[in-house]
Design a protein that fits this description.
- The protein has 7 helices and 22 strands.
- It has about 475 residues and is α+β, with helices and mostly antiparallel strands.
- The protein has 3 domains: about 220 residues, Glycosyltransferase (Alpha/alpha barrel), CATH 1.50.10; about 70 residues, no CATH class; about 130 residues, Jelly Rolls.
- Strands 15, 16, 17, 18, 19, 20, 21 and 22 form an 8-stranded antiparallel sheet that branches. The protein has a 4-stranded antiparallel sheet with strand order 7-8-14-13.
- It starts with a strand and ends with a strand.
- The relative contact order is 0.07.
């Protein structure tokens, strides 16, 4: 991101933030603050449309805010970027043909639409896909054409808004599904294993960066594209929910179950032939387990869901959690006692991906029993634990057994277990242990691995 620019993306974020602040203020009854931020949003919208829309390129374009030997202040940058669709993420542009024409370029294979994903820059850009940043010998991330899941997410969110809130005939639900399909395939390219990378070559489909940080890159909201786009839940204020699935004849059925919306439990089922779920053809909606009546208005479905239910969940605090890698709880172990490894078992991240190392393990141990301990630094009450083992059946496996001990001030004592779910250790999921409450300054976990063929790997430990 070049911050010497007036950025379409950033001012769009500002517009969205202003609207959110205005609405929150209105909900709180602060009408003065609400009016202030509504006015700011209106001003941003006016400025974006007046200053960042380029009539010749039919696109929202960044402008330079510097003046030097290479660029001139307030000139538009040299071409269209995928970021020019971000204003539609917030329904910023007016609903008219002038701005909607921008979407013709998204479907053009000589412009934004690559064979394997959307391009961030068009191939006509003189530096398109020219690699100039490296981390050692590895190519680094760039914004000159690669397909970024982050930017694809925004483009798809913008497309969904266009299809739901604008009058146009350029983009169809089939177009949305096509782009969503390309994005979905990126999750499995090139070897068929689930692993969304940082960015891809839109013309070959191959990942570009390939650094350790690039695997399972957590920078996109794919679930939202399914829930609010394909399945069509359109969140809004009020007691009526609008549902507008972005589907075509290629989608035969789907079921989105157990969705909490305004405190109500929503299930949406679509069955084109009525044979998959045996509930009838078309769309069926359940609210709190009861089939709801649907009203079709302007091609969309509406269902009354009633007054919002305010739910205040009570969630116990994990007293083993330490995201600072220092202080208390302080971990120690019988092996692999490097700080990075020790703290990874209590950092709140539960990942079972073999490509990402975020765990403590007994790798290298020649003992049939190893331990991992936590010092709380003060007396804490604890009565349950959750253990998350990583298992790949190559290097790491679940332990044969485990036990929990607590420090009584003089020595380690075994806790009095009440239940285990499951009874035997299981990998790549949670193991829950309940025991009589103890007040202690420390807890120790002992892992027994009699065969010693595979090391024990602990992804996360939680204590309550």
């Amino acid at each position: 991101m070049d911050y010497s620019l007036i950025s379409v993306m950033i001012v769009s974020y500002m517009y969205g933030n202003a609207l959110v602040i205005a609405r929150i203020a209105k909900m709180k009854g602060d009408t003065t603050l609400s009016r202030i931020y509504l006015k700011r949003a209106e001003e941003i919208k006016a400025n974006v449309q007046a200053d960042l829309w380029n009539d010749s390129l039919h696109h929202f374009i960044d402008r330079y805010k510097v003046n030097n030997q290479f660029v001139h202040y307030w000139d538009f940058i040299r071409g269209r970027e995928l970021a020019g669709y971000v204003p539609w993420c917030y329904n910023l542009p007016d609903n008219n043909a002038k701005y909607n024409t921008a979407w013709k370029n998204l479907l053009d294979t000589t412009k934004f639409l690559g064979k394997y994903g959307l391009r961030t820059d068009e191939p006509s850009y003189q530096y398109y896909m020219r690699q100039y940043r490296y981390a050692g010998t590895h190519p680094e991330c760039q914004w000159n054409g690669p397909s970024w899941p982050f930017q694809e997410t925004q483009a798809l969110e913008a497309m969904a808004n266009l299809l739901n809130n604008y009058n146009q005939k350029i983009i169809s639900s089939s177009d949305y599904l096509k782009i969503l399909g390309l994005y979905t395939q990126q999750h499995y390219f090139p070897d068929g294993k689930l692993n969304l990378q940082e960015d891809y070559n839109p013309d070959t489909g191959k990942p570009i960066v390939g650094l350790h940080r690039s695997s399972h890159y957590n920078h996109s909201s794919y679930n939202e594209l399914i829930i609010t786009g394909l399945c069509g839940i359109r969140p809004a204020e009020g007691n009526t929910l609008t549902i507008n699935p972005l589907i075509d004849s290629t989608i035969k059925y789907f079921c989105l179950d157990d969705v909490l919306y305004h405190g109500q439990n929503i299930s949406i089922i679509y069955d084109s032939e009525g044979k998959k779920y045996n509930l009838g053809k078309g769309l069926v909606v359940y609210v709190n387990g009861k089939r709801a009546s649907l009203k079709k208005i302007d091609g969309k479905y509406e269902v009354t869901i009633g007054q919002p239910v305010i739910i205040k969940p009570r969630r116990a605090s994990d007293i083993a959690l330490n995201i600072w890698d220092k202080g208390f709880p302080k971990p120690t172990a019988s092996i692999n006692s490097e700080p990075d490894s020790l703290y990874q078992a209590i950092d709140g991240r539960i990942w079972y991906f073999p490509e990402i190392t975020n765990r403590w393990s007994t790798y290298g141990s020649s003992s049939a029993s190893d331990w991992y301990a936590l010092d709380f630094g003060k007396v804490r009450s604890v009565s349950s634990a959750k253990l998350y083992f990583f298992e790949d059946d190559k290097i790491f496996g679940k332990p044969d057994d485990y036990s929990i001990e607590y420090w009584d001030g003089r020595e380690w004592q075994k806790v009095n277990e009440k239940s285990r779910i499951p009874v035997l250790p299981v990998g790549n999921t949670v193991n829950t242990i309940n025991f009589d409450k103890v007040s202690t300054t420390g807890v120790k976990f002992i892992f027994r691995n009699k065969s010693m063929k595979l090391a024990v790997a602990m992804v996360e430990i939680e204590l309550y």
